[in-house]
Amino acid sequence: MSRSTRMSAAAVKSALEREATLDFVQLLEITFTGEETQYFCNQAVEHKLDEEGFEEEDDYGVPVMGLYHKGRFYYFLPFGLPGLTQEDGKAPESSLTIEGMTATLIPYIRSMRGTGTASLIEIHMSDPDVEQGRIDGLKLGDFSGDQDNDTLSASLNVGMLTDVAYPCDSFTPDRYPGMF
Q: What is the distance between the alpha carbons of residues 127 and 16, in angstroms, rounded to a whole number?
């Protein structure tokens, strides 16, 4: 798992403002074994354009919404990531919750089989091509549904740190200045 933590000045300013005009957007990249990576974002920012520059529509005549990031289109999927839960002897775990399932998403979700990996990317709308944070190597569990709330959820966790060979790093003053 890797995580970058450098934020741009515009993102830091927006995070500290009470009434920020620009927002943070989370991007999700999901890969299942033997399938292509799927790209999603949690806000409908702009229309997907075809080769001729016209707005694309789905099979039901609804405009396809999402966000362009580094030339790739991330489809709008209303997902949320609640806080981590942690039990003794287990890796921290969260769950990916997809809300407001539509008729276009149900066949796609049903086609997903087994477990996959996920990457979570945080961007700021001041510059959507710059990553403000990234977490790779998340493990995505099986999806389960709740018809009453019209939601799907899947467990999302990282590997146990105890699975890493010891010693994985040396505690030196140049790498860990806060300890010395």
A: 17
Query: In angstroms, rounded to a whole number, what is the distance separating the alpha carbons of residues 26 and 9?
Result: 18
> Are 109 and 152 contacting, i.e. CB atoms less than 8 angstroms apart?
yes
Q: Taking a C-beta distance cutoff of 8 angstroms, is the pair 83, 94 a contact?
A: yes
Handedness of CA 130, 132, 134, 140 (dihedral sign): negative
Q: If we measure between CA atoms, which residue out of 162, 103, 112, 121 comes closest to residue 142?
A: 112
Report pLDDT digits (tens) over 84-99.
676 776 666 777 777 7
Q: Which amino acid is at 132?
A: Q
Please name the residue that has the structure tokens 């450098």: 6
Cβ contact 94:120 at 8 Å: no
pTM over 0.85: no
Where is 24: in which H helix or E strand? Answer: strand 24-32
